[in-house]
Amino acid sequence: MKGKILISSPSLLNDLVFYKSIILIVDETDDDITGFILNRSLNQFLTKNLNSSEKIKVDLYYGGPVSSEHYFIIKSRKNNLGLINIYDNLYWGNDIELLFIQLKKGNICNNDFILFEGYSGWNVKQLDNEIYNRNWTVLDKKVNEIFGLKNKNSWNVQAKKLGEKYSLWYNSPDDITLN
């Protein structure tokens, strides 16, 4: 599953966490699977004071309901040894201090990474069961497309590619009670 994309199905309509979500699976062990919700901006940011007159501000995304007191990063390039390869030129880790140092030095820019609060996790059998029950469609994606999936309407775009069975849902508002 590592490196795969999960697109939530309309069967997760009542799930406040995963409704219309796109998840990148970043790690898989014999027991557990870890991923991040790519398209759920928190409309918040994390700042770091560099000195009395200079701050760095980074947009924050909701990675999932697990370990919400921790931050995680997906990066397009490996600039240090603290990152774990997902596939090709895509990495993940949790060294936020190093992220801010690299931003300050100009080694990376905001388009090179996504910063998450928390992550999504399953045991292997649990996710297999959810896929079997068609709660998720599994896709392969390329690195250059991952960062484009962080847009709010990405689920609608991806669902449209899955065909007419999703048409009612990709044309609906995020809050269907407003329909």
Can you characterise this structure?
The chain is of the alpha+beta class and 179 residues long. It is 20% helix and 40% strand. The protein has five helices and ten strands. Strands 1, 2, 3, 4, 5, 6, 7, 8, 9 and 10 form a ten-stranded mixed sheet that branches. A hairpin with a 2-residue loop joins strand 7 and strand 8. The model has no long low-confidence stretch (mean pLDDT 85).
Short description:
The protein is an alpha+beta fold. It has helices at residues 96-105, 124-132, 143-146, 154-161, 167-170, and strands spanning 4-8, 22-28, 32-37, 41-51, 54-62, 66-75, 84-87, 90-93, 113-123, 136-140.
Key attributes of the depicted protein:
single chain; 179 residues; alpha+beta; ten-stranded mixed β-sheet; 10 strands; 40% strand
